[in-house]
UniProtKB/TrEMBL annotation:
CDD domains: alphaLP-like. One of its GO terms (molecular function) is peptidase activity. This is Alpha-lytic protease prodomain-containing protein. Keywords: Disulfide bond, Hydrolase, Protease, Serine protease, Signal, Zymogen. It comes from Streptomyces lancefieldiae.
Amino acid sequence: MRRSRLRHLGLAGLLVLGSLTTLGTLPASAADSPASPASSAPSAEEPAASAGLLEAMRRDFGLTAAEAEDRLAAERRATDLAPTAQRAAGNAFGGSWFDADAGRLTVAVTADATPATVRAVRATGAHVRTVEHSARRLDAAKTRIDRLDAPAGVSGWHVDPAANAVIVDVVSGEHADNDVQRFVDRAREAGPVTVRTVPTAPRTFAAGTVGGDPYYTGNVRCSIGFSVHGGFVTAGHCGRAGAGVSGWDRSYIGTFQGSSFPDNDYAWVSVGSGWWTVPVVLGWGTVSDQLVRGSNEAPVGASVCRSGSTTHWHCGTVLAKNETVNYSQGAVHQMTKTSVCAEGGDSGGSFISGDQAQGVTSGGWGNCSSGGQTWFQPVNEILGRYGLTLHTA
């Protein structure tokens, strides 16, 4: 990469979030008293949110700067709390999610949980809700549904802990289709299922070569996700293993070392030839360039932001995890669904919550004018699959 270009972009320029090659689609309880809210002031270990990030949350969530700071602090607490609360729930664990209105983590436990178990979960500071089905049962039902062949009228399915069911999304107007009906019937045999309607089917689509800060594989343009030691991670549909990659200036960056799509949608690219990696996500002038300090997984309900070379920086909410998305090329598993918009050329780009890497953009539906939903492949899965180490600040 030319040094003059680096001076122009600053540190984040090396993370050139390219352009999305795959955007698409879709698209009775026991309550306890709320825990006292902790101060939203960042501790010495918690760097303050940048003014740009707070401005993006004001724009996309309708929050004041103080409300955005409070939400980010509450989400950090919920993220840190979730593993402890799950261990406390044990076999009675029914899932967990961040309740944005209450500003706290909610943990579901089954009705057969012992009083001692409920007390242990509440002692962590989480709100407790009683549900019928355990997370283990719901996950097992989803796994059985994953073995079915889904027709095009079914856009995907995921476990929804708040609904305590497996949600099967059917494209509007396709409910009467015989193949869809058969799929739904077989899905209901697998376990507790709720059918919902989505506006359109998921799809991936490549972007032609246009200006910006992309990387290119042939005539396909995609976005860099996160720097790892030795390269970066991105979406699998952007290129196959062995394919060469060039940067924004068409100079050679490196090569796809591993790639998987469908079934998964992830890949990693080695870098060389004067290119190097830094722990930064590009803010595109909308927000300050964001340092990456880790990859702690944000809970359902938490805010998340996306960076991509076509539509730049947008924020939304984590809607679901471990969703199977039924693209026309085949099903992709273990995806996270968000309310963030994206468009063609944003594929592979970064999803980040605060300063914690979350995943790489896969696909979705809609656009950033009228809105939509986007899925990402979780970054920790990619790191584990290829034995990579995230480059952090």
